[in-house]
Amino acid sequence: MANMLSVRNLRIGATVYPPGEAPKDIEIVHGVSFDLERGKVLGLIGESGAGKSTIGLSALAYGRGGVRITGGEVLLDGEDLLKADKKGIRQIRGARVCYVAQSAAAAFNPAHKLGDQVIEATLEHGLMTREEARARALYLFNILGLPDPDNFGDRYPHQVSGGQLQRAMTAMALCSNPELIVFDEPTTALDVTTQIDVLAAIKNAIEETDTAALYITHDLAVVAQISDDIMVLRNGETVEYGPVQQIIEAPQEDYTKALISVRQTKQREARDQSQALLSVNNVSASYGNGFKVLHDISLHVPRGQTLAVVGESGSGKSTLARVITGLLPPTDGSITFADEDLPAQHKKRTRDQMRRIQLIYQMADTAMNPRQTVGQIIGRSLTFYFGLRGRKKKERVQELLDEIEMGSGFYDRYPAELSGGQKQRVAIARALAAEPELILCDEPTSALDPLVAEGILDLLMRLQAETKVSYLFITHDIAIVRAIADSVAVMLQGRLVDFGPRSSVLSPPFDDYTDLLLKSVPEMELGWLEKVLATRRMESAGN
Amino acid sequence: MNTVMEDGKPRRRPLKQRYPLTVLILQRLGLSAGLLLAVSILIFGGVEALPGDFAQTYLGQSATPQAIANIRSQLGLERPVTTRYFEWLGNAVQGDFGKSWASGNSVSEQIGKRLGNSLFLAFCAAIISVPLAVGLGMLAVHFRNRVPDRIINIISLAAISLPEFFIGYLLILFFSVKFGVASFPATVYDGMSFADRLSAIALPTITLVFVVLAHMMRMTRAAIISVMSSAYMETAELKGLGAFKTIIRHAAPNAIAPIVNVVALNLAYLVVGVVVVEVVFVYPGMGQYMVDAVTVRDMPVVQACGLIFAAVYILLNMVADLIAIVANPKLRHPR
């Protein structure tokens, strides 16, 4: 069968503007080639900066920002898109090649109804009459499993949920009957229980309509469910390219192997979990408008161990951390730390009480002053809590930098000069500087690439072994829970649905929601999605 | 997530959630009315607290205390402040601002004509400045960070940095005195032809345009840039829509609210800021009238002018708010 899309030796460049220097041109994709047959799905996988989105968009002859295609060929049915003029490219975009963005919430225009936006490209290219396009949209809403498909198109983007928007975006891409769809991390921004529905809907729609797709993601387990072929990318180059089965079951390259082996158990569960360092006793909390966000939460973090708090967005897990730090005083209940009651408000706590509980945030970027050097950022805690100054302070900062495996060369660097993983390490060092007994980690790895996240988790575990610090680790990622937790708390809509040692929470008999959560996490296993869907069908047939 | 939404029974939600638009609009109306009432108290109190006294100014230094007392009782000034305030407010609500102490004429009648003149001037300035500002804003976006953008920015910033009386005098100096192409003073009278009237107000109009242009232009530029960089503009481009359709269909509906907002705010400023310009150009509008009245302590006129200016300002701000509310699909179509 002839290849529908053929990319030959694609080179993509961009102009960067380093602060204080002249703009310079760099190459971000260095000669990538692949083929895609009609009705097949190719997964592009890699870390951020690997060039996967840029490669995906090249199928629409589009470069985001200052990005432009500098060489190679993008052949759509043998025709080189890069040689087409503006008008020729416009006729292809939205008609023969469509794009599904990562954040559908931003990609839909808030001022127009969903239905109008879904059929817009189809009408624009004169592919169908308005009635035909509407009928097609309705058909797509149906196969994508959207609620109330007849009226779905009359709603505005803000009136539907994130998962529904992502499916609507898929409908928008499918509407014009394109030959190729580029999916750019379509499920990354969704909760796991939502992701599985969207994934199933996309897979089903691709099969029904016999469209080819480029599926871009950083999650190998997701791409394994949906692709026929996989291309692993790193720094704008192909690492490995082959059929999905070969990549998952017999990877050749070390990098691919590392990606697959990520998230394996690091820590054996501690046996004795009775010695509580921090206890949260029947805590409820509300925001200023009276909206109750936490309902009667009771749990404890054992000394020198890790409690993982899991839940989806809006489950109240970050709020719990705010309550523990005293940023949001609870309306009810109390918090005990090392056998003494903690004042509800952080202002009423002593400096020593504050020192013993430290925080690490999800976005290390925004949690650091961009105008301070690494040395100042870490040194601040030393002065604030221990009154260290001058040479003593500097020596201690150097020690801490060694602890986080960064070395003293970073002392005078600014956060902007660090990578995402390095910034998070500095944030950890800042927390460590206070010599805390408990560190609240609020999704510290969720903004990082898998291998970098892995390094951070290893570091945290090593530090725990060395300093006996306890962690309250907030995450939505069950794999992390499996890897590092001693005990687990599962939260849903501000309530604690399950709490106990990891082995008891993560093995049967399950709480209903925990079960759903566990079953929704994609596994690095071919046919996993089908298996889960089949189980679901059986269960619903059984009811 | 869906299950929660789907099985959701039609529970009765608070009014605010069911009709957010109506509730918000009613709120704004009520707020505006309350604000106007507060302003009326401030105006009356402020005028009352002004140093000097009408009778004293009117009769001159040599007036006997008896004569001053007579005038005061004639005007009813010996009655308590609250009585006079409520009487004044009651009449003002019905459109009667009393009689001018200086001339004895009805204030409402005199204001009617002058308000017309002022609004005409502000209207002319608006008709020129709004399209010009929006056009220049779009031009600036088109040439973003390039030479034309910089020039537009510098000129409009320079214009806003100069006080309006200074611009006014500069214009008079060059166009009336040196080149003699424009008329000064900007006198208008009944029975004047429309063309003459326009030529008479040319300089004050230009002055006002200079004053409001920069703000509107820069806000337009910012609004369009923020909309153009949103993800849905990329979506439109990737649908193969042409540049023109992309802007009209996808950028305009979202940029309109902030632009209309800043336009309305500037119109309000136009109507109120007209005071200084009128004095500079000796234009027979509200501003000139009010300034004259303040010098002779003609309280009913000062109060009436103050209240009308406040009302216009509040009204235009309210309109700006309402348009921004109505343009927001989240409020027009609640969940």
TrEMBL record, chain A:
Keywords: ATP-binding, Cell inner membrane, Cell membrane, Membrane, Nucleotide-binding, Translocase, Transport. Residues 7-260, 278-518 form the ABC transporter domain. SUPFAM superfamilies: P-loop containing nucleoside triphosphate hydrolases (SSF52540). InterPro entries: AAA+_ATPase, ABC_Ni/Peptide_Import, ABC_transporter-like_ATP-bd, ABC_transporter-like_CS, Oligopep_ABC_C, P-loop_NTPase. GO terms for biological process: peptide transport. It is a peripheral membrane protein. One of its GO terms (cellular component) is plasma membrane. The keyword Transport applies. It is found in: Cell inner membrane. GO terms for molecular function: ATP binding; ATP hydrolysis activity. Belongs to the ABC transporter superfamily. PANTHER family: ATPASE AAA-TYPE CORE DOMAIN-CONTAINING PROTEIN, OLIGOPEPTIDE TRANSPORT ATP-BINDING PROTEIN APPD. This is ABC transporter. It comes from Thalassospira profundimaris. The lineage of its organism: Bacteria, Pseudomonadati, Pseudomonadota, Alphaproteobacteria, Rhodospirillales.
